[in-house]
Amino acid sequence: MTVSHHVRVYRSEEDLPREDQLAWKIAQVATDPVEVDADVVDMIINRIIDNASVAAASLTRGPINAARAQAFSHPVSTGGSGSTVFGAALDHRTSPEWAAWANGVAVRELDYHDTFLAAEYSHPGDNIPPILAVAQHAGRDGRDLVRGIATGYEIQVDLVKAISLHAHKIDHVAHLGPSAAAGIGTLLGLDAETIYQAIGQALHTTTATRQSRKGEISTWKAHAPAFAGKMAVEAVDRAMRGQTSPSPIYEGEDGVIAWMLDGKDASYDVPLPAAGEAKRAILDTYTKEHSAEYQAQALIDLARKLHGERPELADPANVASIVIHTSHHTHNVIGSGANDPQKYDPKASRETLDHSIPYIFAVALQDGAWHHVDSYLPARAARPDTVALWHKITTAEDTEWTRRYHSIDPAEKAFGGRVEITLADGTTLTDEIAVADAHPLGARPFARANYVAKFRMLAEPVLEPAEIERFLELVQRLPELTAAEVAELSIIAKPGLLEAAPAPAGLF
Fold first, then answer.
1. d(CA 159, CA 165)
2. Measured in Å, how far apart are the chain's first and last C-alpha atoms?
3. 328 exposed, middle or buried (CB, 10 Å; 0-12, 13-18, 19+)?
4. Taking the domain 295-433, which CATH number applies?
């Protein structure tokens, strides 16, 4: 049975016992020895495959080259065996916090892995790099890794269900620091006191504004969750050494809620598993078939459908306007409601274009497909007929789509919209879609075969065939892996691939 934990701000003179603080409640969940259900184990395997897929596709991109160069500028730390970095040889290791950094950037770069959307937004797969890095360094086995990842997903999803960060322009990774710290605590079998202190430090060091997702979006978008994972690893290390954190971190008079979120009169009800209740939150999450912001997934699928049914829509001469009626979030973050001129700029960065639903819908409508590289090429964005169609597309908030976006009923929750197309001759065409085809309730829900196919597609250009098979065989035995096998849970690039990639020089 899920327990709802009521959270509010307390004045300094009020007594808030530690056992009533949210960070302590999270630590109690992390220390609960409950076993992980079989279907949750299967999904964890899927998401490790998914992370490796998108990391493979990113191995030679600029942010990953920089993050990997930073990681390998630091030696393996004492106290453990070190951790692997995506693409590198298995015996070429770095310290766990830097592996979490490099691998976190690789996983996040293409905006192509799993998602959960509720009161806040999240990519819960961002928990995996720091937890896996610590597992490798500390010599933990597959069962320990499964338990740690289950906790990371559980805590992030529970926080996302209850506490909105974006409403106050705080970036969503502020929920990731605490969840990753809790997951590492479970992995290592730490006591509640240590995990409590680590959660407080991880939250305190990972609150930042959402400007990273506004205007001309920079390469920091991929680094933000990696930074949160790195901070979580370091917070656990400090807490294990007896160092304490600001307390109460959530509820304090000068804490996160009072000054960064809803203020001194705020209150939230955070759902957390009861003692002995299995951690199943990963099953509420969903991955991406397409490399783009999650709210674009369903609309890409609708554009593909319209491309097949009405190919004339690809010609801007046949279209007067396209209005996408959708949720508040889609309209204001990736739609015209953001009021970002960059979302209509053919010279915008890839990071900006993957947060522009007018651009994404135009390209998918013309191509009948979406590609993680080709759909973002500067030449593709600058094509005159694309620009003409793109600039005819706007979004509008629809209260019903907003209500469905925030619904807690899985059968009703939706991330799509209704598209109204006015043709040049004055006639109109209307169609809609609620969830992406790959969503658990979509037309073609992702299952193990889809995750494996996605991995093969993205890995084949950069991994040898034998390496693809080695990784897939290993990861699908996850719960029974020895510590030595967990240490091999990475991907090795084709010979010469990383050596040919730029390794930009910096301070280290």
1. 10
2. 49
3. middle
4. 3.30.1330.120
- Gyration radius from the chain CA atoms: 22
Residue 406: pLDDT band by 50, 70, 90 thresholds? confident
**Averaged over 388-403, what is the pLDDT?**
97
Q: What is the pLDDT of residue 116?
A: 93
d(CA 304, CA 32): 45
CA dist., res. 345 & res. 387, Å (int): 9
Taking the C-alpha atoms of residue 68 and residue 352, their distance in angstroms, rounded to an integer, is 23
Fold for the domain defined by 2-284? 2-methylcitrate dehydratase PrpD (1.10.4100)
Query: What is the DSSP-derived secondary structure letter of residue 394?
Result: E
**Is-contact 247 21, C-beta < 8 A?**
yes
| pLDDT tens figures, 146-183 | 999 999 999 999 999 999 998 999 999 999 999 999 99
| SS3 track for 221-239 | HHHHHHHHHHHHHHHHHHH
**Domain map (residue ranges) of the chain:** 2-284, 295-433
* Partner residues linked to 2 by β-bridges: 273
* Residues contacting 366, CB < 8 A, separation 6+: 307, 314, 385, 386, 389
Summarize pLDDT for 223-276 with one digit per residue, the tens. 999 999 999 999 999 999 999 999 999 999 999 999 999 999 999 999 999 999
Measure Cα distances from 473 to 144, 386, 412, 446, 494 in Å.
Answer: 19, 43, 37, 19, 18
Burial class (CB in 10 A: 0-12, 13-18, 19+), 347: exposed
Domains 2-284 and 295-433 share a fold: no
Closest Cα to residue 321, out of 418, 397, 389, 398?
Answer: 389
Strand partners, 273: 2
CB contact set of 193 (below 8 Å; sequence gap of 6+): 27
* Conformation bin of residue 82: beta by default, left when phi > 0, alpha when psi is -120 to 50: left
d(CA 239, CA 506): 30
Identify whether the C-beta of residue 106 lies closer than 8 Å to the C-beta of residue 55: yes
Residue with tokens 């912001």: 293
For residue 158, give both structure tokens: 């529970």
319-326 vs 393-397, strand pairing mode:
parallel
